[in-house]
Amino acid sequence: PGGLERLLFAEPERLFGRYARRLEPGELLFEAGSRGKEAYVVHRGAVGISVGSGAAEHTVARLGPGELFGEMAQV
């Protein structure tokens, strides 16, 4: 692993204890166009990225452990 990975994950319990957020199935984390300063890394399980709503909603990506999302939020 690279230097950043070693720095971030040398003590994962401490990192996750401070910053982790557990989501319930179906829970909405953020919506397209919303403002944010966060990026998220999937630690365990999976996250679906969807567009549209109701009958027009469809999943455009499914992310698993180690994958990053939210980095394109508007500040």
- Percent of sequence in beta strands: 15-25%
Overall geometric form: elongated
Classification by helices and strands? alpha+beta
Instruction: Summarize model confidence as the mean pLDDT.
Output: 85
Order of helices and strands: HHEEEE
The share of residues in helices is 10-25%
Largest sheet: 2 strands, antiparallel
Distance between the termini: 30 Å
Provide the gyration radius in Å. Answer: 14 Å
Helices, by number, come to 2
Contiguous uncertain segments of 5+ residues: none
Write up what this structure looks like:
With 75 residues, the protein is of the alpha+beta class. Helix content is 20%, strand content 20%. A two-stranded antiparallel sheet has the order 1-4. It has a two-stranded antiparallel sheet with strand order 2-3. Strand 2 and strand 3 form a beta hairpin. The model has no long low-confidence stretch (mean pLDDT 85).
